[in-house]
Amino acid sequence: MIKENIYKAVTLYSFLGLAAIIFIGVTYVCWVGFIDHGEVNMSAVSWLLAEGKPVYTDLNADERYSLEHGPVIYLVTAGVMRLMGPSLLTAKVPGYVALVLSIIISAICFYRLVGIKKAIYLIGLETWILLKWPFIFMNRDDSFMLLCMVIGLLSVMARDSKNFIGIGISLGILVNLKIHGFIYFLPILVLAYKYDGWKRVVCGLLLAFAIAIIPFLLPEISLVNYLQWLLKAAAHGISIKIFVGNLIYTLLLVFLIVAMGFLYGVNWNSFCQEHRALIITSAISTLIINIIGAKLGSGSYHLIPLVPILLYFVALIIKVNLVNTSQKKMYAGAVLALIVLLVVSGNAINSQQRLLEKINKYSYAANVIEEIRAVESNYNGHTIEIGYGEDKTYSFYRQFIPLLVFDGNPYLVDGAALMDMQLAGLPMPQTTISDLTNGKTKIWLIPKGNEPFSLHSYYDSSHALFEKSFGDTFKEHYSLVEQLIYFDVWVYQG
Predict the structure, then answer these.
(1) What is the distance between the alpha carbons of residues 380 and 374, in angstroms, rounded to a whole number?
(2) Rounded to whole angstroms, how far apart are CA atoms 287 and 248?
């Protein structure tokens, strides 16, 4: 009876996680706004790509919007917006679809390993782990990288003579999302070698290389510029505090494997002997990712693509038949598993609660969009851009920037990109300031009552993000002509 109740509780827990993924994900996608400034950049730049403009500009270009993310996410988002029309909704759809596909493919993998009943438990656990990070719903690299990992895992498990195709495609796209993507994939390559031999692995690697190169054949995607931006991003430095935080959460998830081992009476010597290469590779891969994820401005969300590997280990453990083990070990496993699940669930609830609170807080976003459309109508024929005001308004007003880019307006400065550039010691070119002098953008919308372009960086709040010469030039050539409900309208005066 007790065991039956435990199974019912675990099943309920699993379906609650799935329900949360669906409900919160759809809520976020349908909401007219963005939470993260990375989404703002990716959405706007994706439409620039669709319009034939470069994703990665020269380091000294006047447009300051390039980031070091790989080209695939821009290509996918641009394709969807070309097909369905550019909007905040279509910009967010690809990321969420990638998440849903990841969960479906994960379910197939777990089903093949442990059957449908236990696969439900594993999928539920996966959803609760993923809910720690609101980024999984967003149009960023994270959900796409997760999708590549589960496709690679499923390809290995297929044990088919052509499974190197799935391995190659998923690895190639993964590297094209983040250049260090191959580090995540190392455990999957170990599995491919174990089951299929080195020839299949080599074929997969060659295909992955070809897939990774293809986007750079497009004239809008410069490999040279991309590598230059990557080198600049490498100068951001590592935060010990972030690294320790990443490591602590990694160990928490590892404890889940240990707990399951106690519960299922796993012979650790035999288990480690059988999966030695996979364990060592996974440990090395995870450690490196923890270090990379400690870059200033990063965090534990870098662990997202490793979640399928974690659960693969759990599946291997529960696949083993229960052997005689002491009640002491079983109780220890149960207690440890309960502690891990409580922490995981607590993190998930806290994270998603904050996400929903922000959506509710910014429920008037549709009214802001109406005001932007009214300005476009009143100043028809003039180029318009949303600028930046003070720190307090950055998180809300930045989300509307892509709307004007979708309508063909300039995209001179992006807050997220400028913060990365400043951290890398890359100054704003004089040509960017010259665009203000020449009135490339005729109308600037600044958050109402804010000092124009007085924003500071998240990385260093002691220094203004925009140089004094930028603000002075703006004041010299633009005048405040009207104050609306949400924006001040600054017009070019020559």
Answers:
(1) 10
(2) 12
